[in-house]
Write a structure and sequence with these properties.
21% strand
């Protein structure tokens, strides 16, 4: 198939946040449900949400959208295992997207940003595109579907997605939008992130 597949990596322990990141209150819903809705409004045709820590609670919170989840039993071993699990799931299901969006649950983004990056990937012929804000690299990363097998083989020991990006230097897209730099590591960052996105808690 051709098309766009999007992966949300949401399996981690959220230790520095102190509570489950996917379940954070976000614009009247949870962070994971808000991110899913953004991807559903984007050009993404297939969506995979990789879960691990508190997987049953996350599934329940998603309701019918739990159909998008992929459980990664190796989640305690690091984020790379979740990315590999998503890529393997695509391969096993016979999905061959021409573009793959990789998003971390603690890096929420908007549908229009996803669409812009996918459009840049397709029009430029680049293998990878990555946004930048004020000279600093951001997210999400969008990869050509031809790299699916490389994503399925990533390992924590070799830096996961970073190794793929290093092997295929991305086309950097400078964007005047602080959203691409949001990174919800700790509770003190939540209010600013909500403000940047123009949403409530």
């Amino acid at each position: 198939m051709s098309g766009v597949a999007a992966i949300i990596l949401a399996a981690g322990a959220s230790r520095r946040m102190g509570s489950s990141k996917p379940m954070l209150p976000w614009d009247g819903t949870t962070l994971i449900s808000w991110e899913l809705a953004q991807l559903q409004d984007s050009c993404a045709e297939e969506i995979l949400i990789v879960i691990g820590n508190r997987s049953e609670a996350v599934r329940r919170s998603l309701g019918e959208a739990a159909k998008y989840t992929v459980f990664n039993q190796r989640w305690p071993q690091g984020r790379a295992t979740s990315l590999a699990a998503a890529a393997r799931s695509m391969i096993e299901r016979g999905l061959r997207p021409d573009a793959i969006v990789v998003q971390n649950v603690d890096q929420p983004t908007r549908a229009d940003i996803v669409d812009h990056l996918v459009s840049e990937l397709r029009s430029s012929g680049a293998e990878i595109v990555q946004p930048s804000y004020r000279g600093k690299s951001g997210h999400p990363v969008v990869l050509a579907g031809a790299l699916l097998e490389e994503l399925a083989a990533v390992k924590e020991e070799t830096l996961g997605l970073r190794a793929v990006v290093d092997s295929h230097p991305p086309r950097i897209i400078e964007m005047d939008d602080a959203v691409v730099r949001i990174d919800l590591d700790t509770p003190d960052l939540l209010a600013e992130a909500r403000s940047i996105l123009g949403i409530r808690g």
